[in-house]
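Sharing a chain and its predicted structure for anyone who wants a worked example. Both blocks are below, sequence first, tokens second.
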Amino acid sequence: MTDNNNHTDIDTLIARYFSGEASEPEIAYLTDWIKESDDNRKYFFELQDIWHGLNPSFEAVDIDLQDAEDKILVKSGLRKKSPSWIKGFMKLWSRIAAVLLLPLILLVVYKYVVPGNRPDALREISTTYGCSMKTTLPDGSVVWLNANSTLKYPAEFEAKHRDVDLKGEAYFDVHSDAKHPFIVHASGLDVLATGTEFNVNSYGTGTTSVTLVNGNVNVGIGGNDRRYEMVPGDYLKLHDGKVSIRKGCDTEKYCSWRNGVLLFDDDTLQEICNRLEQIYDVRFDITDPKVAASRYCMTLRGENINEIMDLLELSAPIRCTSSTENSNDSVPSTQIITIASI
């Protein structure tokens, strides 16, 4: 079911099948369609449940109440007998109307009654440590979700604004729609766009940032009435309630993660470790402030955390020691890496 037309066609075919009017080729096509995916099979049986609810095993048509009423009224002289062709036409039209309207009824019930399929129902996608994903939102906007992140959005964007909630990091390629602004709500700020590309980093560590790649965005800060207009190349950072904007930055440094690359250019070891903690299930303890302030240039392409630590040891006089944080059965253990000078 990739588009509305296909959806309507399959609803009509299912309605014909339930009403016993589907041909053998149609039944064969429907059977193949059900076998194509678990979603198709689930959708068919959901409509089947609705059909059985609307059409119980007791056949109401076996008792023709209208026919009985007509006979009584004719015999009593209160109504003239209608020509038989009119009665036949009305029965035929009733059957045609049932076939035409049933798909619409089933679709409305499925979308607005079945839990989780209402337009205002929220959907949620999440990623674990070390994994990222790409998805398309109901409006056609494309989102790359970084590791250890969660995005919430409605099943359909029907309000004046296209609102999503982000915890973690995501890169947005927003479908252009000036009449319905796209708004990302992250910790401490909201990013308003109509059709553009930007990155939002909001892991709840006291720092939230926005990197604008194309177009323009308008950023609001908490309850502050002031808003910030950004242009391509701007990097806005909110740290402990204070806003700073860097102009003409290398956007790939903040956005290359969606291609599986981490770029560090003259960053301190502390900044590098803070970034790695967002993506990997690891915590760092740098014992020497001078080591924490040392600067590195690195390009990482999918290395695991142990390989990254080996690279750091090769490039500086430091030693990385790994241990495991105490945990109970319900909370996974966290790797602790202590970095000390040698």
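Comments welcome. The chain is about 35% helix and 30% strand.
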